[in-house]
Structures are given as structure tokens and as C-alpha cells.
Design a protein that fits this description.
Blueprint (H helix, E strand, L loop, with lengths): L1 E8 L1 H15 L15 E8 L5 H14 L3 E11 L3 E6 L3 H15 L4 E2 L12 E5 L3 H14 L3 E12 L4 E7 L4
Antiparallel strand pairs: 1-2, 1-7, 2-5, 3-4, 3-7, 4-6, 7-8
Length: 178
Amino acid sequence: MTYSISLGFDKITGEKIKQDIFNLCKKDIGSCILDYNIPPHITLSIFEYEPGIIDVLKKVVDSCGVFIKSGKLHFSSIGVFHPPVLYYAPIVTNKLIDINEKVFSLLKDINAKFNPYYVPNNWVPHVSLGYNMTNKDLLVAFEYINSVFNAFDGHYTRLILSKYDPYSEIYVVDLKSN
């Protein structure tokens, strides 16, 4: 079964990004993330693990929550992956890299099978705005987001363990502040 561990945002950050996604979805381009009830987040790891062993994954998230504190991010750019995914990118800091490495290390200890795009030295922190787009849709989406984007600060406050197909949050840890 496919799982992820992600950073979740405070209400202000989440609503700001959700509004941008909502406005993008009104352009009818690709798949609307909001249709799948996926809240704005930064995925730290996507991995395969045996279904039904949720308690082990909850312990990993709890362990991460001991070391990871809530924090501030500065979103300064718009990016694109191929196949077309449009996203907001925070400035990559040592703290953000350390968080990804800590999550990877704890999951590695339980023999999770990793998506190679989310392992240390490959991971690109991002918040997806749209995906499953044609190249033409991507150009329209980028033009729109570029016209409304201003760099902004955001705050992550939670660690979220989720499963996919369909998406659902399984376990959430509120992060302590520094």
C-alpha cells in the first residue's frame, strides 16, 4: 500500500494555497487536487509498506515529531515537474533538508520501499497546485499562477501520515514550536 508523510500547514497558509488551487481549478486544467480532498502540504516521503501495520508507521511519525518542530517557510518561486505538475517551491533550507533526512532514516529502519523522488539528495520540496495536465494546460496554468503569485511566508505545524487511492489522512501529529 502507498503511504506518505507530509508537512501540514497552519490555517492561514493552508487557506492561502487552497484559494490559489481553487482559482486554478476554475480554469478546468488537468486534475483538481481539491476534488480528491488533498489539502496543501509538502510531501517528505512516499513509500510502500505492508497494509495493516499502521501502528509501526504511527510510531515513526511520533518519533519524527520529537525531533521536528513547527517552522516557517518562504515560498519564493513557481516550478514545474515533468509530466506536468505545477507547484510552489519554498526556499530550501538546511532545516528542511534535515527533516527529509530524518523521516527517511526512520522509515529506512522499518524497511519501507521508497519512491526515489522523495529520498535525500533527490527530494525537491514543493506544494503541488495542479497535475495531470497537457502541455497546453500547463502553459495556461503557469500563466495564470505567474500573474497572481507574490512570494509569501508560510508555517508548517503538523506531520501527516496518509494513504493513497483514495487519499486519506491516517494519523496527524501537531508539531511543537521552537
